[in-house]
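Workshop exercise sheet. Pairs work together: one partner reads the sequence aloud, the other fills in the structure field after running the prediction. Swap roles for the next sheet.
Pair: D.N. / O.F.
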Amino acid sequence: MTIEFLNQPCAVVDCTIEAAARAHQQQLTKPPGSLGALESVAIRLAGLQGHARPQVERVWISVFAGDHGVAEEGVSAFPQAVTGEMVRNFAHGGAAISVLASELGASLEVVNLGTVNDPGELPGVRRAFIASSTANFAAGEAMTPLQLQAALQAGADSVHAAKQAGAQLFIGGEMGIANTTAATALACALLRESAASLAGAGTGLDDAGIARKAAVIERGLARHRDASSPLEQLRCFGGFEIAALTGAYIAAAQSGLPVLVDGFITTAAALASVRIQPACRPWMLFSHRSHERGHARLLAALEADPLLDLNLRLGEASGAAVAVPLLRLACALHNRMATFEQAGVSNA
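Structure field:
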């Protein structure tokens, strides 16, 4: 199975600008390296944006929502109706990401890809309805090829809208009851790991619930053992929102738009993106280390060093949103600190 836009080339990082930004950091009135990750992330952003003075004032956040057939296995502490109810909550400004986006002055788009409890048309919600839910991956493929294509394209469409709006940074988020189960199954397939090693509490499962989740995932892994390509693994295990994130990350790299990856579920999508299109990896920054059990393993596979570790595991792009002020401060320091020469300060 091939989906045409996935194979288009990714943009190339401007190494000349990045080198100039690194040299500029050496001239600022501080010991070299003393601002740690704030220096390196500013240098990265300069190369990604192709500007000596990077900025992240215009931030675009897309939260993709979709329900999962595997929820029928009892793998979540919350009922499936919550997905549609949370879409309504996003639209009314009551969710964590709604508050964070407002505080940041970020553009927030919610994309309903398919919910069992359909809230209908809502302000601020884009309907890209594929089906009311994916299928149960423990009993069959989660998505048909056409459904996977639609979900990937929905993610790319969000990136194109962000680019058209002049966004300097793209953040993807997700909402979907049972999506930690789908993301864990996908991660297990991509990493060739056991479910027991990656399955976590998700929405708050106890030890018995985690064990049940792991057993369901192992059934799915056995059923789809012949799904060898990352695209087929995404189709067999993923959710509409996980596939949309995958499409968005690849499209962002193709468009030359840096992305800030959120937590466990979005990082599973990021790994799928890199396995499908390896050239998209340089366009990813990583916001935080989730409290969800499998996240550290995914970050290690991507050689990612996240900015924060706050024991977050909400999703919705909330961890990435929390990291945006750090990126803004990194850019402000890079752009506005005086050099030794400007300040009349002796260099080392």
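Discussion prompt: The longest strand covers residues 59-66. What would you look at next?
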